[in-house]
User: What shape does this take?
Amino acid sequence: MSLLKKSRRYSVFYFLASLCLVSPVYGQIYSKEKLQTLAVSYIRDQLQPINNEQTQINALALDSRIPDRSCTSSPSLSVSTAPPFNRQVTVQINCEDIQGWSQYVHVRITELEPIVVATEHLARGAVIEAHHLSVEMRPKHFVRVQHLQDESVLIGSRSKRNIRSGLPVVLSQICMVCKGDNVTIFATIRGLRIKTSGLALEDGTLGEQVRVKNAKSGKVLNARVDGVESVQVNI
Assistant: This one.
């Protein structure tokens, strides 16, 4: 074989080898949406076991300018704190291949609680019925003391103001005992539970003190509202 042919053969070999060395090695593509999904799954695993009906885990949107990323190995995920997390936690995603990159994804954790809401508009003075209410899961940090979790407690009470559809029904918006209503008065004396009738002299809701007039004796009593048209007297 001539020296020229050998030289050409070696030249072709080195050219092909150089192409292999400079050609990029393509890995799996990680879009912004996939990175967010990875972060959410990671946090969900850290919180196990959780009640999916009472906990929402969502990733905040990444900057639209962030390009899709490639990684030849499985990225590693980490957080700087241990559970339980605050309402927002930052997940660091690292690709440790030859190119290498890091991406931070902010994940929001929302604890939910059941809350009674109006299913339709309730005008002032309306008697609340079962079909007027439903129970929905709402963010726990928005739930207030006067919010209720059991709609059956409100059945038969009256709205003291207009209540918009879809909004929570709070105790301050209703009266379980309304001024002028006939009420049932319960009293416990020496272990005996006594029941009598009376007249409400003012509005009241669950747990509040109201004045009622005993229908038989005519005596005005201070009583605690314990239900719709029902009060409890301590004797």
In short: The first helix runs from residue 3 to 22. Residues 3-7, 12-23 have pLDDT under 50 and may be disordered.
